[in-house]
Specification:
The complex is a heterotrimer.
Chain A: H1 8-17, H2 19-29, H3 32-44, H4 48-73, H5 77-86, H6 88-98, H7 103-127, H8 132-155, H9 167-170, H10 178-197, H11 199-207, H12 209-214, H13 219-241, H14 246-260, H15 264-288, H16 294-312, H17 318-347, E1 355-356, H18 357-364, H19 368-380, E2 384-387, E3 392-395, H20 397-419, H21 429-435, H22 441-450, H23 466-471
Antiparallel strand pairs in A: 1-3, 2-3
Helix pairs in contact in A: 3-15, 4-10, 4-13, 4-14, 4-15, 5-7, 5-8, 5-14, 6-7, 6-8, 7-8, 7-13, 10-13, 13-14, 14-15, 14-16, 15-16, 17-18, 17-19, 17-20, 18-19, 20-21, 20-22
Chain B: H1 10-19, H2 22-48, H3 52-73, H4 78-102, H5 107-129, H6 137-142, E1 155-158, E2 161-165, H7 166-184, H8 186-194, H9 196-201, H10 206-247, H11 251-276, H12 280-298, H13 304-314
Antiparallel strand pairs in B: 1-2
Helix pairs in contact in B: 1-2, 1-11, 2-7, 2-10, 2-11, 3-4, 3-5, 3-10, 4-5, 4-10, 7-10, 10-11, 10-12, 11-12
Chain C: E1 28-37, E2 40-50, E3 55-59, H1 66-73, E4 81-86, E5 89-90, E6 98-101, H2 115-127, H3 135-147, H4 163-176, E7 181-185, H5 193-208, E8 212-217, H6 220-226, E9 229-234, E10 236-242, H7 243-246, H8 249-257, H9 259-273
Parallel strand pairs in C: 3-8, 3-9, 6-7, 7-8
Antiparallel strand pairs in C: 1-2, 1-4, 4-5, 9-10
Helix pairs in contact in C: 2-3, 2-4, 3-4, 4-5, 8-9
The chains are: A mainly alpha, B mainly alpha, C alpha/beta.
């Protein structure tokens, strides 16, 4: 306990108290010139430190991304977390081996400690009533505490260079040397090889362990192979990301990839790519300022990628889904307006000119203003034109076809439900209201065939025929307007 | 190696702290005991709800909460710290649920993503604004229980009566309130942990209980944070409860055992740290781990050894008549 | 750890209808199999010999150990006693001749694989280390998908399937294993009527080609029509034999309604063994 008053909270207090003044100085220090210079230095890759850092980040990104994919689909994300904490005593002991930073000794120590941790988790689960989360949390915390004790003991040793040790907590990519890089390359190579060679074994045991065992795969051996690789990945990531946040490099890029694809092999590559991206971004940002830790920046980089996938992923993204739903709702709305226009026209045997907003509003039980908005929406999609100062709606050929198709869908479905499913005629309207918007052409043809090309719905109204649809023009076309649909607004 | 482990000297390890440095020793052990008790009591419910790792997540993610609270409030008062922690705790809970309910990412990955992101944010905030002052990021991780004594901390006095250093008094209040809350809401907590559906039918809102528990967890974690740091809090949350669960299957007994366990690990941990001259909080957790291992091996009902012994004695492990009931 | 077999322990003999001609190698032979979870037996003293070419329904109440039996038979659970032989060989050596359809809920259907990938997994067991599925394996997988009428869905992600379709995929995967002995865990659970018919037709077809099938089934009324052989199970084998001989009121009563009867019988045996166990 030789450290001076290094005490998280009081320092935070002081820091925040002094923030108003000190903050300004700090920003001044990190003036634009410095940042730009540092950025240039980074991008030009002339500095060997930068080259090592970038290369190291790329390697660790690939390794963590690949293995993380299996971790995520096996629902073992928190095993990765526990494992990454459990390596700490191994790091400390490995460090002690030469009382200096010997990458190989640290690697071996950490891998052994990590594997030991996973074995203990398994044992606790098998032999006690404690559940997985408790077992993981316990092993994580106890191993980490042992590591903390060892590290504090090492730090008071008079001999040796201990400057590298605390870098393992939050990571410093700039501390990666050629020795470390060699080790990282070896581990990455082994991981790539294992994923390539054992792909089907990893896949089948991850998807369906029971089936894998029934087909003769040694599920346990495969599990521990994965754990061994994982321990290796954690250890090579330690130096750049730090013990605490390694699990994020395993989980977050893989989870982002998981949101973007439906195939394991694509997920593996995407995840490796994201890992690389996050790694380099982290190295870059931490390079901009003095003594900025790398790990947290890498993690936030990965989180940004995940956020992108979460909100804007083409299929599962939150915003994308919301947008799709909105446009679907708008389409349904348009189709319902068209249907109402059709109903109005049908109500007067397709006589008379156009449909007035008032008629539409009455039919839809809405105000004229709402009807005007809907009519405008139809115009925007070239389904109708407005005449008489916007009070009279005329359908364009496209609008007419769509209106016929919707009404046709509705009535065919009603007929099908009453005929085939024997549902009372007054119970089928609601269902048809929903299904009319989603029936595809093939289904409609099939319905027609099954209904013997019926011409009347259960309520005795005529079903618009294909001829009506193909005719392409409403029977109420204005005599003077046969040529230029949509030309006049 | 010899330099690493100092020779064991009974006098130095066990007697000197209490005779020569009583002031120091007393407050440190008391703080350790309070932290382990409060965390352990709350942790029991986390274990019951299979949410041990949510506790892990929250103990990490309150860091940005505290940092932002101090940035905004510009003071070192207790209130902004608690508020920041509460906000961060609730934010973590919501974030985890949002991720795993609104996408196909499973809960375990959601926990991992949420807390690492928030923790990273906290570390960056600290490193951006703290490099002028001598801040050590490691302390965020494993705290420094050695500085809770009156030698380094302001002392609380009420009506001329000296109570003790601020962090210890604060922790004591939190621990007492934890005990009170558990006593008051014992059946609600039990039912909502055991069977949320049953709780609903009894008129207990399980969601409210869930968030209340998370809020209180944040308060406990933030007050313990100072002493044992983010990561060792998780140890204190899980280890005492897990050990107790191996010794008894009745909740009141488990809660009581948690307190006993806290006292034991705080005291023995302190002596271990004195002997090895290492992190005190770390040593307390190591001792809690040792206690767990002892329970794991020797627990009369579920221990490895008693069970093994039973098996060889009766030969037919299967003939246990309990099954016939 | 060896329990005396139930027969030796003067338990009233269970109806054990012998089927198959003597001298024939059984597809599945189970002898004195006992499985326990934390000291509580789930299966107790199971003896079974299934001749080839049988479609066996495993029937019994909830908690009777139906799934446990097939898992234990495949060597996926530690046995407290007894042994299992498949085609006269220890089960470990004959896993290649076993096909398995697990319960549909046992896997995560969000897993990033396509229908084709899942069916190809059926080929993995025969491929061995370092080998990738080849064209021939893909052809087999396609044929199997076609048999369950799922070929049009080959490139779909598996979560975009209905329950019945998912079950068909599992069935196709089992077919792709090209095994001689199949274990199926509730293949009819939660599937539509059309799938149920399709599955049972397929099972009959497999049986007619000489395969042996053991199917866990939870719906008693249909069991009689679906299977030619029934195994009534409730922790012990209540009866095993041709459906028309086994599907009797008494035996079913004993399996389902007679839970107490069985327990009291077992209690009786345990009591007679004396010493080691006490019966309240």
């Amino acid at each position: 306990m030789t450290r001076s008053l290094k005490f998280a909270l009081p320092v935070l207090f002081t820091l925040c108290a002094a923030l108003a003044s000190a903050h300004a100085d700090r920003i001044g220090d990190l003036g634009e010139v410095t940042i730009r210079e540092q950025a240039l230095r980074f991008v030009s890759l002339q500095d060997p430190t930068v080259r090592y850092a970038v290369l190291g980040s790329v390697l660790l990104g690939i390794t963590c991304g690949l293995l993380g994919s299996f971790i995520v689909v096996r629902k073992m994300a928190l095993v990765g977390d526990a494992l990454s904490h459990a390596v700490l005593p191994g790091v400390a002991l490995g460090f002690l081996w030469h009382t200096s930073k010997d990458p190989l000794a640290i690697f071996i120590g950490a891998t052994v400690a990590g594997l030991l941790g996973t074995v203990v988790v398994g044992l606790v689960q098998q032999t006690t009533r404690l559940k997985e989360d408790t077992a993981l949390g316990m092993v994580l915390a106890t191993f980490f505490a042992v590591g903390v004790c060892l590290m504090t003991m090492i730090q008071r040793l008079p001999t040796g260079n201990k400057s590298g040790l605390e870098k393992f907590l939050f990571g410093q990519a700039a501390a990666i040397g050629p020795d470390d890089l060699q080790l990282m390359a070896v581990v990455t190579g082994l991981t790539l090889l294992a994923v390539f060679v054992l792909y089907k074994e990893f896949l089948v045991t991850s998807f369906d362990e029971g089936f894998a065992r029934a087909s003769g795969f040694p599920a346990r051996v495969i599990h521990y192979t994965l754990m061994l690789l994982l321990a290796g990945a954690v250890v090579i990531a330690l130096q750049a990301v730090g013990v605490v946040l390694v699990s994020a490099m395993l989980i977050t890029p893989a989870a982002a990839a998981y949101l973007l694809t439906d195939r394991m092999n694509r997920m593996l590559w995407l995840s490796a790519g994201f890992g690389m991206l996050a790694g380099v971004a982290g190295a870059f940002f931490s390079f901009l300022g003095p003594s900025l830790p790398t790990g947290p920046f890498m993690v936030l980089g990965a989180t940004a990628v995940f956020g992108g996938a979460f909100f804007f992923g083409p299929r599962h993204g939150l915003v994308t889904r919301w947008w799709r739903q909105r446009s679907r709702a708008q389409r349904v709305q348009r189709e319902n307006t068209l249907k109402s226009v059709y109903h109005v026209l049908e109500g007067r045997q397709f006589q008379g000119e156009g449909v007035s907003l008032r008629e539409l509003a009455e039919r839809r039980r809405e105000t004229v203003e709402e009807a005007r908005q809907q009519a405008a929406e139809l115009c925007r999609h070239a389904l109708a034109t407005l005449h008489e100062e916007g009070n009279l709606i005329f359908l364009t050929p496209a609008g007419w076809q769509l209106a016929c198709a919707i009404v046709r869908n509705h009535r065919l479905w009603e007929l099908y439900l009453t005929n085939a499913a024997q549902i009372a005629a007054d119970h089928v309207h609601e269902d048809a209201e929903r299904i009319e918007h989603v029936l595809g052409e093939e289904v409609v043809r099939e319905l027609e065939r099954r209904l013997d090309y019926a011409t009347q719905d259960p309520h005795g109204r005529p079903i618009p025929s294909w001829a009506d649809l193909r005719q392409g023009a409403a029977p109420n076309v204005r005599p003077d307007d046969t040529v230029g649909y949509g030309s006049s607004i | 190696m010899n330099q690493l482990i100092p020779p064991f000297d009974f006098e130095r390890v066990f007697l000197a702290p209490w005779t020569q440095h009583f002031e120091l020793t007393f407050w440190i052990v008391l703080m350790g005991f309070l932290v382990a008790t409060a965390c352990g009591l709350v942790g029991n419910y986390l274990i019951l709800r299979r949410m041990a790792l949510v506790g892990d997540a929250i103990s990490h993610s309150i860091l940005p909460g505290i940092a932002v609270a101090f940035l905004l409030a510009n003071s070192r008062g207790t209130t902004p710290m608690f508020l920041g922690a509460l906000a961060a705790g609730v934010a973590t809970t919501i974030l985890i649920e949002a991720i795993h309910k609104r996408s196909r990412v499973k809960q375990d990955a959601a926990i991992g993503i949420a807390f690492t992101s928030l923790f990273a944010l906290g570390v960056i905030l600290i490193s951006l604004y703290a490099s002028k002052v001598d801040l050590d990021q490691e302390c965020v991780l494993y705290g420094e229980i050695g500085f809770v004594t009156p030698l380094t901390q302001p002392v609380v006095t009420v009506g001329g009566l000296t109570l003790g250093p601020v962090p210890v008094v604060r922790m004591a209040v939190v621990t007492l309130v934890t005990g009170l809350l558990i006593a008051m809401f014992y059946k609600e907590l039990l039912v909502s942990s055991f069977d949320p559906a049953l709780a609903f039918s009894l008129g207990i809102n399980a969601t409210v209980m869930h968030y209340a528990l998370m809020c209180w967890l944040s308060v406990v974690v933030v007050s313990a944070f100072e002493a044992v740091g983010a990561i060792l809090v998780i140890a204190m949350l899980i280890l005492p409860g897990a050990t107790a669960a191996l010794l008894s299957q009745r909740l009141p007994v488990v809660l009581l055992l948690t307190v006993v366990n806290a006292a034991l690990s705080a005291t023995t941990g302190f002596h271990l740290a004195t002997w090895l001259d290492c992190s005190i909080a770390g040593a307390m957790v190591v001792m809690a781990g040792v206690l767990f291992c002892l329970a794991w091996v020797f627990s009369p009902t579920q221990g490895l050894l008693p069970r093994q012994w039973q098996r060889t004695r009766t030969n037919t492990a299967l003939s246990a008549p309990e099954w016939i009931h | 750890m060896n329990l005396p077999s139930p027969e030796s322990a003067s338990l009233p003999a269970t109806p054990h209808i012998n089927c198959g001609s003597p001298g024939e190698v059984s597809s599945l032979e189970v002898h004195d199999l006992t499985v326990a979870y934390q000291k509580k037996p789930v299966l107790w003293g199971i003896d079974l010999a299934v001749p080839p070419g049988r479609l066996v329904g495993i029937v019994g109440p909830n908690g009777a150990g139906k799934s446990t039996l097939i898992k234990a038979a495949m060597g996926m659970l530690p046995l407290s006693s007894g042994w299992v032989k498949v085609f006269g060989q220890p089960v470990r050596k004959s896993l290649r001749r076993i096909g398995y359809v697990p319960q549909r809920e046992s896997v995560d259907w969000d897993f990033p694989v396509s229908v084709m990938d899942v069916v190809l997994m059926g080929r993995y067991g025969q491929l061995g280390l370092l080998r990738r599925p080849r064209k021939r394996d893909r052809e087999i997988a396609r044929e199997c998908l076609d048999k369950v009428k799922m070929l049009p869905y080959a490139n779909r992600q598996i979560s975009n399937l209905s329950g019945g379709q998912q079950q068909r995929v599992f069935l196709a995967r089992a077919l792709a294993q090209e095994s001689d002995l199949y274990f199926m865990d509730e293949p009819f659970a939660g599937v539509d009527a059309a799938t149920e018919t399709a599955i049972i037709t397929l099972l009959h077809e497999l049986r007619d080609r000489g395969k042996t099938l053991l199917v866990v089934h939870h719906d008693l009324p249909t069991a009689r029509d679906y299977f030619d052989t029934l195994l009534l199970l409730n922790m012990r084998v209540v009866a095993f034999g041709d459906t028309d001989k086994v599907f009797t009121h008494d035996l079913l009563q004993k399996t389902y309604g007679g839970r107490l009867t069985i327990l009291s019988e077992v209690a009786h045996v345990v009591g007679q063994r004396g010493g080691s166990a006490k019966v309240p």
